[in-house]
Specification:
Two copies of one chain form a homodimer. Chain A has eleven helices and three strands. Chain A has 225 residues and is mostly helical. In chain A, strands 1-3-2 form a three-stranded antiparallel sheet. Chain A binds a DNA duplex (30 and 30 nucleotides) through α2 and α3.
Chain lengths: 225, 225
DNA sequence: CCTACCATACTTGTATACAAGTATATCACT
DNA sequence: AGTGATATACTTGTATACAAGTATGGTAGG
């Protein structure tokens, strides 16, 4: 478990939540691992209460399973869960980018343009590690343009199911065709071309098609069922 | 605030959550009302801890706003929030019913058929109050058939935003055309006719089109902005 | 009368104590 | 050796105590 320092502004609960999310997403906390409220509170140097509140929240997103009086465990990778997260992401991203085509304005174009330009810059300089967070921000910005930012927030925790499997995939998409995808999406939005925009999202998400059987054969103990 | 008895099986936290949800949905707890962890724990005859945990969960769904050291309040009706919930429900319901057309089997048909038949029975007998929960169950069953029940769970709390506005609407849909809608949806699913099924969902949800201006003029103090 | 201060009674955030249930290891007995 | 009872050390669920910040109302002073 990777422990980072507590930000002085955030509450103890938010701190515990942040640390847990990061470790689950990065698979530093392996699926199936037992986590104890007491142990974690000692590691984070905060009391059980905020730790417990964070664990409960993650249990609501099915990322942790709580068995009363027995223990809490990082959820095993559940193919059904991953599939539902993927499904939800796809249909929502597609509908939202269509709405963004209707709602886009000068300010929105500038926001998206600045982001994509920066991605292209980093790509040209080979600083590909910078692109990861810009990628996430780009998708979030599209939700903001479409005035659907609450939906983004609500779904973000759930998408960890999808993203941690991507992280587990040996052949992570490293060719950064994604930057080209983002440029095309932006141009489609600017042209208010809903159909093309939605198709681009569909194609984009298909890049992250994962080979469950392959991953499962390598780490069967991470999987449910 | 309407207090019901605690089910002996449920935990104190689930109890608090259930009571709060019901009261928010029914508008027994009016938007803007202050709720105190201490006061509520006294009313429910449980301690602050489970009450607090329930409040935190509802705050994550934007149904309660917590202002540290100042108080917690039932969220005002936020048109943007309602719009996002409505948007999410529409796109998800449409995509899920299409998936249901692919995944439907004998067992699923029986489940849906039993439900709709019962709705039709109650309608013919004028026992319309029974239809409300069958309606909810029907929609949930479609998610189950499509193997998307987690998405239903995740979204259910969020849909309270949408549903409480419906409850506030003076002209609640009482004509129960909805039963006919359900029958048509079932037939479309049985025929694996995705296009028709999705169109029916779209039309169905449009029945609940609410006149925000009308409601706002009657209860302006319930609204945000 | 008006203003500034301050005690007070709230609020939520965090820490800790206790309750109740579970798994395990040990030890006695067959 | 094998089996079963039991003590023990965990677990999460709940209750309570304390910390820190905020709003309010009363009061003293101008």
């Amino acid at each position: 478990m990777r422990i980072v320092a507590k930000n002085s502004r955030e509450t103890a609960r938010d701190y515990a939540l942040r640390v847990l999310k990061e470790n689950i997403l990065s698979l530093e906390l392996k699926p199936g691992t037992a986590i104890s409220e007491n142990e974690l509170s000692a590691e984070l140097k905060i009391s059980r209460t905020p730790v417990r509140e964070a664990i409960i929240e993650l249990a609501k997103a099915y990322l942790i399973e709580i068995y009363p009086q027995r223990g809490s465990f990082i959820s095993l990778i559940d193919p059904k869960m991953v599939d539902e997260a993927r499904f939800l992401r796809k249909i929502t991203d597609m509908a939202v980018i269509e709405t963004a085509c209707d709602e886009i304005d000068e300010e929105g174009i500038k926001m998206l343009e600045d982001n994509v330009s920066l991605q292209e810059y980093y790509l040209s300089k080979g600083m590909t590690d910078k692109i990861f967070e810009l990628d996430n921000q780009f998708h979030k910005d599209i939700y903001v343009v479409a005035k659907k930012d609450i939906i983004y927030e609500i779904h973000s925790t759930l998408m960890i199911h999808f993203d941690r499997v991507r992280n587990l995939s040996v052949a992570t998409v490293k060719d950064f065709k994604v930057v080209g995808d983002h440029r095309k999406m932006l141009e489609a939005i600017k042209a208010k071309d809903k159909k093309t925009a939605a198709e681009l999202v569909d194609k984009h998400l298909n890049r992250y098609q994962i080979d469950e059987k392959e991953i499962r054969s390598q780490k069967p103990e991470y999987f449910k069922g």
